[in-house]
Amino acid sequence: MAALNPFAIAQQQLDEAAERLGLDRATHELLRWPMREYHFTLPIKMDNGRTSIFKGYRVQYNNARGPTKGGLRWHPEETIDTIRALAAWMTWKTALVDIPLGGGKGGITCNPKELSEAEKERLARAYIRAIWRELGVDRDVPAPDVYTTPQIMAWMMDEYETIVGHSHPGVITGKPLPIGGSPGRTDATARGGVYCVREAAKALNLDLSNATYVIQGFGNAGQFAATLHREILGGGTLLAVSDSRGGAINRKGINPADMVQHKLETGTVTGFPGTELISNEDLLELKCDVLYPAALEAVITDRNAQNINARIVCELANGPTTPEADKILQDKGVYVLPDFLANAGGVTVSYFEQVQNTYNYYWSLEEVHRQLDLKMSRAFHDVHEMSQKLKTHNRLAAYMLAVTRVAEACKLRGWV
Ligand code: GLU
Predict the structure, then answer these.
(1) What is the pLDDT of residue 152?
(2) Could you give the number of structural domains in the chain?
């Protein structure tokens, strides 16, 4: 993450789309930058009685299509530039699945693995005390992302409601079910990604019912992808999975549900019975039908793109592939489902959650799945058709669709 600035990558991707679209200079310049950003310094009393100082951020990238929306990351390497990039990608993501929201992202530079539950709660509440004036269903709505959980969303909602003095569950999404969460939110990111793989198989005329698949990163998205891949595609062999501590491989196949259980019990995927160790780097290069990068940015670069041996790459992570790698994958004929399409299921069900909170009536799980499937399938086919028409890779096609929609909203408002 240190060598490649993700925000420079996000701007470079936009530049390419703007050029292909012939976007006017003012709109292009407007879309290259966050419209608003906040930086906080948060003093937190630690359990040992000392005070630690944390840096926090919230970027409201663009709200032309509606209130800004996007998750909160708690990661030791978080910087304002990772957050800016992620907020830009949220802007394209909400436009691509065509929900009436803009894009935002926030984060705290911290290592949640070293924080106690009580310290996490104090940090979550302090963050809300810093930003609450700028939040709300009609302003900006955070959600979970890397290393943030439904419990953290619950503390944040509680702090917000305590400050404003009334119920406002839609201020944050990804909440636990008993306090206004939506059915189907926890597995929505992975489910949306697998729906895209299913649609891609139809479009490419591939039979994926016996496909091999590999998952890099075993947090929320990776874990659910492991089980949902088989459930939605009607079969498949999970060859290998990895997390920040390393990878585990078994060429005869890994039982996804047992692996999830092992991860929950031991905190890592390594050491799962019947598997051998494999590094994250080697895992990405395994021959397989579907590769799911589900961790952090910039793991497929010009250094390893030539060695990617997957038929389909489904980007559940945000920003896993650099622009140089995109070109190499396209030349190799690897079919990439770009991040802001493949992982849009999370924010789509977040939007459903916000809608349910606002009219205080809750949908069934089946209804959430049905609506999610409609949104994801529609977005997939829009991107696929556009890329066929323009003979370009899916990411550029997705950018062109999303940027056109955001630019149109900016124009209609009279901003440009
Ligand atoms: N953090 C997720 C994402 O990157 C979800 C955002 C949301 O639900 O608002 O799309």
Answers:
(1) 98
(2) 2
